[in-house]
Amino acid sequence: MVIDALEKLQTELKLRGFSPLTVRNYSFFVDKFLKATNKSIDEINQEDVRAYLASMFDTKSKNTIMLAAASLKFFFKKILKKEVGEIRVPKKDRKLPEVLTKEEVSKLINSAETRKSRLILSLLYSSGLRVSELVNVKPSDINFSENTGWVREGKGSKDRMFMLSPGLVIELKEYLKKKENSKYLFSQKEPLTTRNIQKIVKHVRQRSEIQKKVTPHTLRHSFATHLLESGVNIRKIQVLLGHASIATTELYTHISGEDLKKIANPLDNLLDKKV
Prior knowledge:
DNA polymerase, domain 1; 56% helix; single chain; 3-stranded antiparallel beta sheet; hpI Integrase, Chain A
């Protein structure tokens, strides 16, 4: 019965166009919930959901609890055809993202030990791709004559174009000459895992001696912020990042320190008038 319910869940998610990562995550949390309640499908109810989520509060992050809640709401409403009602979960922290300066980005990329690592870091910063998108890029997704590429079935199962530095395109061409049979840009038959990329970034950050916390997403934040600083319209940045909502882009591309330095202090204006 439980196996049937999970199969129905996975089928429904796929038919609705959810990404493979979302299918795995939703299936994981629903499976954990069903095992934790130890009840038949017909017996589980809203109170079981609330008790399960409450048990996560002391050991799991807010993001994990929110994802678990979304998984169970979908399962109850779409698969079991039951109303789960309102479930209060902690709101996701809206912290300003960590951003590298242009000098720090350059230092990071130049600290890579291998050509592959340098290209991975350069592509993350040049394109603003999510790490889950980067690992699935194929050589056929790159338009070398236009300095662009395509994300196939990114977040929300949407395709979108990304831009590339002309200098990076030349380097990728040279790199791929020795990788003629590679299915993916940076791997042969199977895509690298997001964990592989995270380890590469962590190792290079340590070599660079940059004191900030640096993750693949830090390069995405930096890409967006540096575009904003150079005057690129926020709507265009929204498209490049693949955000469904402009509100998300506004958080990523927060007012930078460089922009703040350009603002005239109102006290200076008052003092100038007295002189």
